[in-house]
Amino acid sequence: MISLQHITKIYDGGEHALRDVSIDIPDGDIFGIIGISGAGKSTLVRCVNLLERPTEGRVIVDGQDVTNLSGAELRSYRRRVAMIFQGFGLLAQKTALENVCFPFLASNGKVTEADRAKAKGLLARVGLADKASSYPSQLSGGQQQRVAIARALACDPEYILCDEATSALDPASTQQILDLLQQINQETGTTILVITHSMEVVERICKNVTVLVKGKVVEQGPVEQIFADPQNETTKALLGKGSWNV
Amino acid sequence: MSSAQDFLSNYGKLLLQGTIDTLSMLFISTALAYALGIVIGVVLYVTSPSGLRPKGVFNAVLGWIVNMTRSIPFIILLVALMPATRALVQTTIGVRGVVPPLVVSAAPFVARMIEQSLAEVPRDSIEAAEACGASVPRIVWSALLPEALPSIVRGVSITLISVLGYTAIAGAVGAGGLGDIAIRYGYYRYEDEIMVVTVLLLIVLVQLIQSTCDFISNRIDHR
Ligand SMILES: Nc1ncnc2c1ncn2[C@@H]1O[C@H](COP(=O)(O)OP(=O)(O)OP(=O)(O)O)[C@@H](O)[C@H]1O
Ligand SMILES: [Mg+2]
């Protein structure tokens, strides 16, 4: 279980991106974090895999405090927590297969035949068996994001962090990606943290949700409950039940 | 026709030797400048405030040294470095004598070009590599440099063409090569034909360098 405890993040410029955020993400969950632009969603998710260090507070994973990990320990922790980006984050000069193999290279310094076979299997899993030797520029946005998902699965992660994974995609590709994430969650029990500004995405796949406003948690609970009876004005506005003049 | 034959039999050997000298100066010093410049450029990128391993003071000092070296005109650097050059390669003339100052002059230039090429790599892809649990050397070697390669190759043509200009300057102080020939025959002896021919040779060289680098760069770029 990932447990974020009293996370505060103040950037060098003095920007207060997160204020005392505490969230428990149950194992096996698809957990949504929703908020408008600038709410601190990306900052929060980047604190989970320590691309960003919290100014205060702790990140506890399965009882272990990972907040101050560095070097090899940090790298092996990061292999347990895969990440998917809004902009896909693929290497443009590598083929789809080479991209999926990158985590093997990162962890072992080499890519074995078995690794390559596994990567091909993952590409088939995301429906791109025939695109192994295509470069990202030859793929659509939805296809690139599926390559990124295959890459995320390469190290058999316990957690997958998705930062606006579908924001750059059309509705059909969005649907496809969300279905894929849901299947992965059901088949492997991988915990998925979904960052989004879209209530639709939360409604489609999340079990629990946290609403973030100006770096603070304002509402938290099971999706049905929050949807049925939102308390906070921003939540109501995100649901289209209130106005944005809050 | 016969005058062309005369010209060739008079100067052919000289021009051939000049071209060989120019090319050796050019490629040896550029290769060494890249060996140094890639390391400095990568270190500048990695230690920059927004880099993978920010090291503010170190980065500022290194950047300052690079800028300082770049601000010394080549002809002055060439003369100022003579004692060091002599100690290093036992001479200050000929191809050998001019390689050290050419390297010292080109390496910081190369470092800035490399830094620039690395900065063009989208941040997302580098962060994704980091999020995969890759170490900094692994990210540099397997993600950053391969991603930046087409841009680096385009930079190589700019570097080669600048260094070619420097070799002509070095020719004026005993380095040999086409620049030396142009000055000795074209300038001191008013032999216009040889001046024209050296200029033509240089033009052809520049075109060749530019089109070869462009070709390679386009060939390896998959964006
Ligand atoms: N590297 C940084 N340095 C300084 N301030 C930053 C940095 N990254 C983000 N911020 C600031 O922190 C706040 C939260 O940003 P963050 O990117 O986490 O928001 P977000 O909820 O992900 O927004 P969006 O939906 O637009 O992606 C913003 O005010 C932003 O300007
Ligand atoms: Mg964001």
Largest sheet of chain B: none
**Main beta-sheet annotation of chain A:** 6 strands, mixed
Structural class of chain A: alpha/beta
**What name does CATH use for the topology of chain B?**
MetI-like fold
Q: Estimate nothing, just give the exact number of structural domains of chain B.
A: 1
Largest interface, counted by CB within 8 Å of the partner chain's CB: A-B, 31 and 23 residues
Considering DSSP H and I runs of 4 or more, what fraction of the residues of chain B is helical? over 70%
Q: What ligand species are in this complex? A: adenosine-5'-triphosphate, magnesium ion
Q: Provide a count of the helices of chain A.
A: 9
Q: In whole angstroms, how far apart are the ends of chain B?
A: 51 Å
Q: Which strands sit side by side, in order, in the main sheet of chain A?
A: 6-7-8-3-9-10
Secondary-structure element series of chain B: HHHHHHHHH
Assigned CATH architecture of chain B: Orthogonal Bundle
Elements of chain A, N to C (H/E): EEEHEEHEHHHEHEHEEHH
Mean pLDDT over all positions of chain A:
94
Can you tell me the residue ranges of chain A where pLDDT is under 50 for at least 5 consecutive residues?
none
Report the structural category of chain B: mainly alpha
What general form of chain A does the structure show?
globular
